[in-house]
Amino acid sequence: MTTFLDKQNWRYATKKFDAAKKISESDLDFLKEAVRLSASAFGLQLYKVIIVENPEIKAQLLPAAYGQSQIIDASHLFIFANQTNVGDAEIDAYLKNTSEIRELPIDALTGYGDYMKGYVKPIPEDAKDVWTAKQTYIALGNLLSAAAELNIDATPMEGFNAAEFNAILGLDKLNLNAAVIAPVGYRHEEDATQHHKKVRKSKDDLFITL
């Protein structure tokens, strides 16, 4: 039986995907659920995840990703877009959802809601956008690990023009910003990178125990 660490050793940032291989609906649902269950600050999940499978849209995005072939060859392209202009409305929506799921009166959550609003409101808008963008990386990490569990390849990418992605997809009109992306699919047999030994720091170099 393979272990979590075996899968982490197996995965790598795929450079060339097999465009003929597509992710099944059941596996895609698994990946979506893994992303949905990701941790986030206060549990607010201040981001959206856009999943692009339409070849025409991928082709539009390709120049904004500097021509990297993973964009069009991968089965699906996950785009993690952080919310901008975050305020009381997002917190109120979270409280409403919590009230419904946990079957609690909304009044019981007022104190926690006030605490969150008191924390979030004073943050300058530019710093707030950085904060919400950071949350997307936690969800990205879950995607990478979940994909590896299914022997599905995923490549985290920051090498793209966010402003152009936002314009092509209309994200800016939705108070969203493309923070990080991940093409997901299956490695091509010609991708030489899969045969390279994984390079990571040793435990002694990486960890400091106090």
From TrEMBL:
Pfam families: Nitroreductase. InterPro entries: NfsB-like, Nitroreductase, Nitroreductase-like. Signal peptide: none annotated. Keywords: NADP, Oxidoreductase. It comes from the Bacteria. Residues 10-186 form the Nitroreductase domain. GO terms for molecular function: oxidoreductase activity. Belongs to the nitroreductase family. This is Nitroreductase. It comes from Flavobacterium degerlachei.
